């Protein structure tokens, strides 16, 4: 699954084994993180959007960016699940 995600993201990030039963997918560069933010922006429906906006605020403050906060996706579930 991680290899599929990595290939879909254009080989951004890396896979790291962590212990015997865990694997982490790590995106550590600004370009990769911003790509992921732009990919997910405006598509979250749950309170996870609050944490996502925290990431956007952190990136804006740390790197002097001007990315707008993500709004909740309120579109119809039947048309956009």
UniProtKB/TrEMBL annotation:
InterPro entries: Homing_endonucl (IPR027434). The lineage of its organism: Eukaryota, Fungi, Dikarya, Ascomycota, Pezizomycotina. This is Homing endonuclease LAGLIDADG domain-containing protein.
């Amino acid at each position: 699954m991680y290899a599929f995600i990595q290939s879909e993201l254009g080989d951004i990030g890396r896979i790291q084994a962590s212990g015997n039963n865990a694997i982490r997918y790590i995106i550590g560069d600004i370009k990769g993180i911003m790509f992921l933010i732009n990919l997910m922006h405006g598509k979250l429906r749950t309170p996870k959007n609050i944490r996502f906006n925290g990431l956007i605020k952190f990136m804006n403050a740390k790197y002097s960016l001007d990315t707008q906060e993500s709004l909740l996706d309120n579109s119809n579930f039947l048309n956009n699940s």
